[in-house]
Every structure is written in C-alpha cells, then in structure tokens.
Amino acid sequence: MGNFIQKIFTREPSSAARAKDRLRLVLINDRTDLSAAALEALKDDLLEVLSRYIQIDPDAVQINITRDGRQQRLIADIPIAGPISRKY
Amino acid sequence: MSAKVITITSGKGGVGKTTATANIGAALASSGQRVACIDADIGLRNLDVVMGLENRIVYDLVDAVEGRCRLNQAMIKDKHIPELYLIPSAQTRDKTAVSPSDMIRLCDELKLDLDWILIDSPAGIERGFKNAIAPADQVIVITNPEISAVRDADRIIGIVEAEEKGTPRLLINRLNPEMVRQNNMLSADDVVDLLAIHLLGIVPEDKNVIISTNKGTPIALDGKSPAGQAYRNIARRIMGEEVPLMDLEKGSGIFSRLSSVFGSGE
Questions:
Q1: Labelling B185: which of B36, B50, B80, B110 has CA 20 to 30 A away?
Q2: Which domains does chain B have, with CATH numbers?
Q3: What is the pLDDT of residues A71-84, one digit of tens each?
Q4: What is the ipTM of this complex?
C-alpha cells in the first residue's frame, strides 16, 4: 500500500500521455515544415523587428504554434512595455 | 447505378489495409451490395491470399490494363459471398505498368455494374499510392494507435486533401482496450484529437483476425468475434446508416477494472 501511495505522489506521465505529447509536437513540425530550432529563430527575428517600434520585455513574450483542427496557427502574445524612449 | 470508389490507405505499412479492404468488402457484399476489391499493390500481391482466392487467379490488373484479357476475366468471384469480386494485382517487377489514368478508366468501366469499388492501396506515397487515389470518390485512412502509424496517417491525410479528394475518414485498427485502460496505449479519442478527421470506426485487437486470415475466410463473416462485428458496423456506416461505436469495455470483468484502478496492471 505504501508503494501505491508513493505512486500517486510521484507519478510519471503514462506512456500514452507521453506518446500524445510527442506526437503533438511532431505533427506540428511535419505540417508546417518548421523545426523547433526554426521556430526559435522565427521568434528571435519577430522580436527584433517588433522592438524597433515598441518596447518589449522579451521574457513576457509568448509565441507558439497551436492546432485548430487540421489548421495550425501562430499565436503571439506580446505585452507592450511602452513606447521606445526617443532622445530628442 | 454507378458505384462509389473507396480507396483504403495508410502511409505506414502493416497497419491492416489489406485485411480491412477484404473485410469491408465482405461485409458490404453480405448485406446485398455488389462489390469489387482491387489490389493496387503491384509487385506485392496480397489481397488474394487474405480473401482466400489465390488459387483462382488467371488474369490480373496489369493484364486487364494492357488488354491481354477483358476486364470481367480479371474479376475473380468470391467463394463465400455472391456479388463480391477481386481484381488481383500482378507480381511483375515493373511498378509503372499501371498509371493513375489507367485506374480511372478501369474504375469507370467497372462502375456500371457495381455498388462499391474498394481499392487496397500500397504503403508509401509513390506511384502505387497515386494510382490507388486517382479514381477515389472517398478515402479511408487506417492507423494503429501507435506513434509512427499516427504520424504517417497525418502525412497521408495532408496529401489526400492536397489532391482534392476531400477529408478522408479514419479507421483505427488493432486498438487494445485493456492497454488503453492502463494508459499504455493512445485511446481512440487521443488519435481523433491529433488527426482531427471524422472517425469511421474502431477495430479492436482480436486474435480471431489471424485465425480467419489463416483460413482465407473474412472475419467479417464471423458472427461472434469483436473485430468481425466492428467491420460489419463500419460497412453499415459506409452505406449511410448511423451505427454507434461498439462498447469496447464490454466483457472486461470487475476485477480487471479494479486492478487497473489500483495500478497493479502497470
């Protein structure tokens, strides 16, 4: 029984859950032809362009690809910290 | 009356395309429909042995396409069910013996006297697959609840959509309800959620499939087996009936459920 209680508290994700998580990522990569590394590069480029116009806290930015049926969407949530302080 | 052409495909090999073609064909024909099953896997003929008709082959698909015989001479009559026919594949090495336009022409000629034409697609996305898809009015994608089969199914669904064949319907084969209960196999809901297409049916893992294939008798004619029941339900859905999904939990005793709750099954 002790073993059972221990199992509840330190439960690893089931193998089915792991398969589903792995497939989620693989299918997004396959469908968009975008690797995880390419997505990171895209995020960096996006931030660089945006920060020319607005002030951004890079740590607060969330850019992800989500699935909507058989469609993928690039969802970006970018809190604007303020206008770029221009020195006159 | 003009037949509908259904192509059965999967991407990955070994998930059960040929068995599904034989059994959906048998189930449709045993409810009075006129059905032809075409083996489009040139060089790797198999639908003939699964249907138990390997000793009756005289002419094959390539003979019919190349005009060495009339089309009806390449149609082998089933042993068990009237109005069920097989057009076997050829064992030639030349995989380009048949083209997509040959398949369209062949199906157009067959359509007149039939209700359904089922095409057993080869694995992969090469010429044979393109041949199988070309004449299709509808496509069924088969997968197993396994990571590699689901991934390949997703690729195939994308290709079928790009070929403007509509969104295919999904058949999940060899689902093991006990393993799903123990969270050690992707559930049908998981697979449908990932692939996001309409579920045509679930065929549970069933050792009777191997036994009936050994004998060359379709499992769909086996009244009691779960897989046979699943194939009969799938055929009814294809004919447009609303048939609820089978209860795959049925038959598992209270003890196996308890043991899975307490984790001893893991």
A1: B50
A2: 4-261 (3.40.50.300)
A3: 899 999 999 887 66
A4: 0.84
